[in-house]
Write a structure and sequence with these properties.
By secondary structure, the protein is low in regular secondary structure. It contains four helices and seven strands; from the N terminus they run ααβββαββββα.
């Protein structure tokens, strides 16, 4: 919502500017009316299904479905079965308020990185990293800010994936994308994305979903051949291949893992 004036959508932003800017302090939900409006800037020409809005667990807004979109914020995070003490093991919640989860599940589950690896996010629940936060850690050119997601309406209108104003995993956020069964861009793992209300586990088409699971994690996905486009914190855009090493994918997503690796083009 806050980005609307910077993508030539100032008129849409001004319809609910008071609610958008005061939500954190007042809890006003009038801003939701803006989320029913399709925004062409937020749609990838390679995807389909934008004409069918999201009608899932978030409900309708003034009788209208939420509008679709293809670009999502990176909240980082780790989803893991054996989280260290004091670390939230639920990917979506693990970076809330700027917290940094620590990987501790290698011995019980395995994974791409050693125990003790941090997984801090960039845009998280009630918190967003400053440029200096990223620059002083892994670097703005090596940390993902935004990624593509696919619109899930071809499976069912209740699939929240690709919904630009719903700030949940798969809708307008990606996270925990290199841990547990959420492994690489466009992975074809069954039950990969954890999304409240999604009714179809279409892993053969790269849209795996754990049915009956609440919002917890979601992978970067696209209909492009071979990978996804991502925007780094410094504003550069990269194409990341599906076969990127899982550890490298982790390091690109976490802002403070101590590594500034990225996939070579």
């Amino acid at each position: 919502m806050l980005a609307l004036p910077y993508v030539e959508q100032g008129d849409l932003y001004n319809q609910q500017v008071t609610s958008i800017t005061s939500y954190m302090s007042t809890g006003s939900n009038a801003w939701r009316a803006v989320g029913t409006t399709p925004v062409a800037n937020f749609l990838c020409p390679s995807d389909t299904g934008a004409e069918t809005g999201y009608k899932g667990t978030a409900g309708l807004v003034n009788g209208l479905p939420w509008a679709r979109g293809n670009y999502a914020c990176n909240f980082g995070g780790i989803h893991q079965p054996s989280a260290p003490a004091g670390t939230n093991g639920v990917g979506w919640l693990s970076t809330a308020n700027g917290a940094t989860p620590i990987y501790g599940s290698f011995g019980t589950f395995g994974g791409p990185v050693p125990d003790g690896t941090p997984g801090g996010g960039v845009m998280c629940i009630n918190w967003g990293a400053k440029l200096t936060d990223v620059a002083e850690c892994d670097g703005t050119s090596a940390t993902i800010l935004l990624s593509e997601v696919r619109i899930g309406s071809f499976l069912d209108p209740a699939d929240p994936r690709g919904t630009w104003a719903v700030g949940m995993p798969g809708a307008s956020c990606i996270g925990a994308c290199a841990s547990w069964d959420c492994t690489n861009p466009n992975d074809r793992n069954s039950s990969s994305d954890d999304l409240d209300g999604a009714p179809v586990d279409d892993y053969q088409d790269g849209m795996g979903t754990w049915l009956g699971c609440p919002f917890q994690q979601a992978q970067a996905r696209s209909r492009h051949v071979g990978g996804v486009n991502v925007a780094m914190v410094d504003g550069s855009v990269r194409f990341v291949h599906n076969e990127v090493q899982q550890a490298i994918w982790w390091y690109m997503l976490a802002r403070n893992d101590g590594n500034n690796y990225f996939e070579e083009p």
